[in-house]
Amino acid sequence: MHVWSVSLDVPVREVLLLRALLDPDELRRADGFDDPARRRRHTVAHGVTRRVLGSYLSVPPRCLRWTRGPHGKPAIAGRPDVSFSLSHSGDRALLGVAAGRSIGVDVEAEPAFDAGAFAARFFPAPERALVAAGQFTRLWSRKEACVKAAGGRLVQGLPLLVDGETVHDPSGALPGPWLVRDVPVPHGFGAAVALSGTQPCALTVH
């Protein structure tokens, strides 16, 4: 599996080049943001996704088309053999690509809210000490990566115990298990990638 860690703070020229790769729906969504920073981040994240996937599949980036699962998980139309996942938070994006297995990625900036109080309400008890030790974004990104790999909803991932290399859902609400890895990102962020199944798989970070 391959993961790209991408800065969304790029020169205007690069933003314009990436904007030219977007489809009409992506352009509408980008232009719907009143905040110029959010507009730029959306444009760069989705433009880079098209550029990377186009190179990976030897397809012109503008020609890529998406389908979506019941809870919005995107997939490449006509290529069920390749899975991808995109996440962005602040000025950082994460893009994961895998062949033959479903992938989910998540990147999270340090929260502005009280992480301890949130974990006390929603996280399983064994994880609360880890949150107190400053691991909230690590755990949160792991939960969301698993949910994205499964094509589920975030609320289904909150009860998962995600500190280990493999994660499963005892309730059976989410199809699993998953192989989960932390992804190195700049200070102030937490990031993770989840891959369906537990078979070992090399992780390449770009």
Note down, in words, how this protein is organized:
- This protein has 206 residues and is α+β, with helices and mostly antiparallel strands.
- The protein has a single domain, classed as Alpha-Beta Complex (Ribosomal Protein L22, Chain A), CATH 3.90.470.20.
- Helices cover 34% and strands 25% of the residues.
- The protein contains 7 helices and 10 strands.
- The strands form 3 sheets. A 4-stranded mixed beta sheet has the order 4-5-1-10, covered by helices on one side. Strands 6-9-8-7 form a 4-stranded antiparallel beta sheet, covered by helices on one side.
- A hairpin with a 5-residue loop joins strand 2 and strand 3.
- Helix 1 packs across helix 3.
- The chain is globular and about 45 Å long.
- Keywords: Transferase.
- One of its GO terms (biological process) is lysine biosynthetic process via aminoadipic acid.
Summarize the SSE layout with pairings:
Layout: E1 2-7, H1 12-19, H2 24-31, H3 36-57, E2 66-68, E3 74-76, E4 82-89, E5 92-99, E6 103-109, H4 115-122, H5 128-132, H6 136-150, H7 154-157, E7 166-167, E8 178-182, E9 189-196, E10 204-205
Parallel strand pairs: 1-10
Antiparallel strand pairs: 1-5, 2-3, 4-5, 6-9, 7-8, 8-9
Helix pairs in contact: 1-3, 2-3
